[in-house]
Amino acid sequence: QICNQHNAEAPNLEQAFHRMAQTEPNLDHDVSWFLLPSYWAKMVVALISFLCFANSYDGEFVFDDSEAIINNKDLRAETPLGDLWHHDFWGSKLSSNTSHKSYRPLTVLTFRINYLFAGGFYPVGFHVINIILHCTVSVLMVDVFSILLGGLQFSNKGRRLNLAPKTSLLAALLFAVHPVHTECVAGIVGRADLLCALFFLLSFLGYCKAFRENKEGHNFSIFWVLVSVILGAIAMLCKEQGITILGLNAVFDALVINRLNVLELIQKLRHKDKSLENAGLLRKGLLFRITLLMSGGASILYIRWRIMGTGPPAFTEVDNPASFADSLFVRAINYNYYYSLNAWLLLCPWWLCFDWSMGCIPLIKSVSDWRIIALAALWFCLIGLICQALCSEDSHKRRILTLGLGFLIIPFLPASNLFFRVGFVIAERVIYLPSIGYCILFTYGFSLLSKQAKKKKILTVAVLGILLINVMRCALRSSQWRSEEQLFRSALSVCPLNAKVHYNVGKNLADKGNQSAAIKYYREAVRLNPKYVHAMNNLGNILKERNELQEAEELLSLAVQIQPDFAAAWMNLGIVQNSLRRFEEAEQSYWTAIKHRKKYPDCYYNLGRLYADLNRHIDALNAWRNATVLKPEHSLAWNNMIILLDNTGNLAQAEAVGREALELIPNDHSLMFSLANVLGKSQKYKESEALFLKAIKANPNAASYHGNLAVLYHRWGNLDLAKKHYEVSLKLDPMAPGTKENYNLLRRKLEQLQKKGG
After folding, report:
1. In the chain, where are the structural domains located?
2. Which of 225, 459, 566, 608 has the lowest tally of Cβ within 10 angstroms?
């Protein structure tokens, strides 16, 4: 056992290497790389990982951030903390049929803390935490890679020795600057992967601490094994992949702590050899520890299953087309093609996209498809690595290759479609943890090349070049994640066949008021995916606003035909039918929307407008009242109630409704204006004046506010003030209806008064 002092100084490391070399080869021996003390190595990794993603700190909320953060009621203080444990990542009840069953309460809790400390939805704080988390994870990687590449050795004082300081630094740098991590860091929703990775690594390091007093597996700390299980559970409560660390800890225990030779074990089992204990399987403590890990994992999964319920998540064919294929062959071949694309993203992370669904990757339907080559290349490499990991006579190579493959494959299993259907084709964020395995394999390959190379410096320069290119790619990709416009447009060249990319570009343009450009992208989205009901709905809305009602009706009718429970499309179809004066059909469409979405205040509001047009005043008032019950801050519904009651002479009721509305929405100037009109008609001039002035203060450029205040002064007898506000109103809107006539009447009256006074 190595009893050296902690590797604070380079000479101590060299002594440790010398002693280690007596038992097995050391990766650092032939590698031409930087040798830094542990503290400085971690500082370098932290600094470079920060530089990669620093420019994302002032980015906006983009893509999934809207649903997971802005529209997630679980972030708000009024939502009880207990609800986080019964809701999914998006704030929906886990028992709901529409829930994606993504159970990540601890991640949502960090979002809530961000929101409370910032005092609202300010993205800077969210982004800064993500950057800090990635830097922390990257720093921890130095320790993790030193164990995975150099082995687990402790000094007499129980301090862990870093036996591979050069290669662990290289592997940590590769991880820190990998461009595929941009989605996790620059996209706030990626916090789930960052937190999961943090507790994943802490669980692994905790498990390693169990062997500080280890003598060939005989002595270990049960406390640290249990801590590792608990940290694994916390990782899973951040994201589902976290549970896989328990399996990796078991693999590490068998290979590194107990030095298990898998091939030898298989041969002994085949020949029913009784000396299995010598093979390491029954060595004291291993089975007990694996039992603890398996029991802990099973308990965690059972508790999660009980909380989530038994229903599978609801995904559609556009989310994951291969999983809906009837043929087992088509499913299997496409899943394997997806795996090869994930591997390619690790090897060459140049073509990155925020979304890979909706036709971005067409299905492989026959063996004549040239893309089969990618599958063959993937399995050729994997089988070669597995054979080396199992059959090599070099125990050091077996250990590193097996650990590399383990960290590459095992964390990816929850996203592999093997156990359950997932809601994506490819998701760059799920490669965050598997990239650990890639970094191990890359670094080991670099060490083998260094051993053979005569000019090691050229190899080192090449690796430095790769790191530099990755840093630049991270910075570029981070800048694309700063705004939705840049993010969505960056995907057009990567996934031109992805209907969702065109839809999102169109939506972003529509939100900015560029309807003409938005129509172009919505039409392309519908062309690429003729069943894309959301694109049809949005395109129909724009056409409705442009008074192209016939095409709008056709699109919305097709949308509800494809998806009969699409409540928003039913409501919008009702609005178009109302505009076409087909009132009975419009009413039926509104009620169909409400049938599919019981709590739909906007639909009740539009239904109320229909009834008002038909002079069904009681029905209109009831519809608007339902809208305000479901959404108390629904200003338009309150306003329409006040105006309808005012116009029908129910001033007392209009006043009561207006006061009720202002109690709920005290700063709404349109409500102040409507109630001021009612009070003026009721001759409550002083109170009416106060509300008019308050409304004008909030919105000083509203001509009607000044015009109606002038009418109030006119009635009240304050003619000079009336004249002043008439003039302001006409200056703001010279064509204001009735204002010019009233102003002329006032002027004549003032002239008459002046003549009488003269």
Report:
1. 199-311, 321-343+358-473
2. 459
